[in-house]
Specification:
Elements lengths: L1 H36 L3 E3 L12 E3 L44 E2 L4 E5 L2 E4 L4 E2 L1 E5 L9 E3 L5 E3 L12 E5 L6 E2 L4 E11 L3 E10 L5 E6 L1 E4 L6 E2 L5 E6 L19 E8 L13
Parallel strand pairs: 7-9
Antiparallel strand pairs: 1-2, 3-6, 4-5, 4-8, 7-10, 10-18, 11-17, 12-13, 12-16, 13-14, 14-18, 15-17
C-alpha cells in the first residue's frame, strides 16, 4: 500500500515538475522572441502643441537609441507695413478755347452816349469790350443791339466802367463813320509813349463841344474839315494789329483780331491833372 502511494506521488510529482518546466521553457522562448523583435513605445504630439520637439521612437536596450525628429511647427507672425506717399500735384487751370464767331450788324446802333446814337463802325464784329476812358468828360455808354459784349476789369482811371468801347473785327474790315459830323482832328500819334497809331476826332452834328474819338486803325481816308455820314463815309481801310496784348484779347479767339477804340467826350468837363506825367 505504501509502495503504491509512493509510486503515485512520485509519478504526480514528476508530471507536475514537467509541466512547470514546460511553462518555464515557454516563457524563455517568449523572452528570446521579444528581445529579437523589440518593443516600440510611441509618443505623439498634439497639433495644438506648437513648438514641441516632435515624435520619439524608443527601441529595445540592445539596439542603439534612435531619435527621429520631426521639424517643429513654428508660429509665424507677419507684420504688414503700409507706406503712405504724399504726392504734391500742381493743377494748372487753362481758360477754355473761344471759337471764332462773327456777328453781322448792318452798322446798327450799338450804344447811346446820352441821346447820341453811336453806330457800329464795322459790318461784322467778334466781340465788344467796354472799359474806362482816360477822359473825365467821357459819357457812360448805354449798350443796345449787341449779342456779344463784356465790361472789362477796372483800369483804375476813376471814370465810368463803360466810357470806352473796344470793337473787335477782322483786320481787313473797313472802318466807317459811326456818327454824322465834321472831322476836327485826324492823323497819327504815339500810343503809350512808344507805338505809332492813327486817330480821327469827329464833332457830332448839332452838338458843339462834344467829340467822338476813334483809334487803332490803318489807311486813314479823311482829313480835317471833312463832313462824314454815319455808316456811309469810310474813315479807314481796316483795323490795326497792335504790337502788344490788349485787355479785350482775353475774350477773343486766337490769334486775336485787332480792335477799334471809340469814346464820346464832353469837352466842357476838364480832365484831372495826370499824376503820371507826359511822354
Amino acid at each position: 500500500m505504501v509502495g503504491d502511494r509512493t509510486g503515485r506521488w512520485a509519478t504526480g510529482t514528476v508530471r507536475s515538475m514537467a509541466a512547470r518546466l514546460a511553462r518555464v521553457a515557454g516563457l524563455l522562448v517568449l523572452v528570446v522572441s521579444t528581445a529579437a523583435c523589440g518593443t516600440v513605445s510611441v509618443e505623439v504630439t498634439s497639433e495644438s502643441d506648437v513648438g514641441k520637439v516632435g515624435v520619439q521612437s524608443t527601441l529595445a536596450p540592445d539596439d542603439p537609441l534612435v531619435t527621429q525628429t520631426v521639424p517643429a511647427t513654428t508660429a509665424s507672425t507677419t507684420t504688414s507695413t503700409t507706406s503712405t506717399t504724399t504726392t504734391s500735384t500742381t493743377t494748372t487751370t487753362t481758360a477754355p478755347t473761344i471759337p471764332l464767331e462773327y456777328h453781322d450788324t448792318g452798322y446798327a446802333v450799338f450804344a447811346l452816349a446820352s441821346d447820341l446814337e453811336v453806330r457800329m463802325p464795322v459790318s461784322r464784329y467778334e466781340t465788344v469790350g467796354f472799359h474806362e476812358s482816360g477822359h473825365d468828360g467821357a459819357f457812360q455808354l448805354e449798350v443796345v443791339n449787341l449779342d456779344d459784349w463784356t465790361t472789362l476789369a477796372s483800369r483804375g482811371r476813376g471814370t465810368g466802367s463803360r466810357t470806352a468801347a473796344d470793337i473787335v473785327a477782322r483786320v481787313d474790315e473797313p472802318v466807317m463813320a459811326p456818327i454824322d459830323g465834321t472831322v476836327i482832328r485826324a492823323g497819327s500819334y504815339t500810343l503809350y509813349c512808344d507805338h505809332t497809331d492813327n486817330f480821327v476826332v469827329i464833332e457830332p452834328s448839332g452838338r458843339p463841344g462834344w467829340e467822338l474819338k476813334i483809334f487803332h486803325f490803318s489807311g486813314l481816308q479823311v482829313g480835317v474839315g471833312d463832313e462824314v455820314i454815319a455808316s456811309d463815309t469810310m474813315i479807314a481801310t481796316g483795323g490795326r494789329i497792335l504790337p502788344f496784348v490788349s485787355q479785350v484779347d482775353e475774350f477773343t479767339a486766337e490769334p486775336s483780331n485787332p480792335h477799334v477804340h471809340i469814346e464820346v467826350i464832353d469837352t466842357s468837363i476838364p480832365d484831372r491833372p495826370s499824376s503820371g506825367g507826359g511822354c
